[in-house]
Amino acid sequence: MFFAYATRYFARLAAFCKQRSKKNVGFSSERAAAKYLRQKCGLKILLRNYKYKNLEIDIVAFDKKNDTIVFVEVKSRAAAAVTPGYYAAASAKKKKNIRAAAKRYMASLKNADLSNFRYDVVSVIHDESGKPLEISHFENVGF
Which residue among 62, 120, 122, 125 has the highest number of C-beta atoms inside a 10 angstrom radius? Predict the structure, then answer.
């Protein structure tokens, strides 16, 4: 009886640790993506993890060169992953949710030009420990 209890306990503990590890990798990837967009692309980061109800946008930024609001989806993938992050970001449900969250965010702005906006994807490839190895920016992906 003790063995069965211990087995269930450690299985739950392992699942919890794996979930926490995925969240940490996701947070690290979003931080690396924000830094990349700021330093390499010249975007001003307005918000990270914008949430409205069950909808979320990873990064909301502003492109000063084009006077454009940028909604960014960050996809994190292990270096050994079969599907690159950009393609994994493109599910129809994900696009619909990002569009709805973006619409809600823009509705909350006052006295802003809402005609200039775009959707970008940042793919972050990481090693086994979660350290970012490669970052790719796909601009204006047309969600």
Answer: 122
